[in-house]
Amino acid sequence: MPDDPKPPAPPAPANDAAPPTAAGACPICGKPTELKYRPFCSKRCADIDLSRWLNGVYAVPVDPRDEEDEEV
Ligand SMILES: [Zn+2]
């Protein structure tokens, strides 16, 4: 059975004057994302997010009773 030839997807208008948010905005401060530190704008924001994430993990108490059935 012959494959139905479909035209390639039209390329995104990357050269258009797209708003910074199109390329990605830093979730910390909202500045345009820097490729080197994406999805953040800088290492500082990346560190901030990392620390938030770690703090969040540590802040969430893991209830051992949840895994009581998995005692091995
Ligand atoms: Zn930032």
From TrEMBL:
Q: Keywords of this protein's UniProt record, alphabetized?
A: Metal-binding, Zinc
Residues covered by region (Disordered): 1-24
InterPro entries the record matches = DNA_gyrase_inhibitor_YacG, Znf_NHR/GATA
Q: Where is the composition biased (Low complexity)?
A: 14-24
Q: Please give the subunit comment from the record.
A: Interacts with GyrB.
- Which family is annotated? Belongs to the DNA gyrase inhibitor YacG family.
Protein name in the entry: DNA gyrase inhibitor YacG
Gene symbol?
Answer: yacG
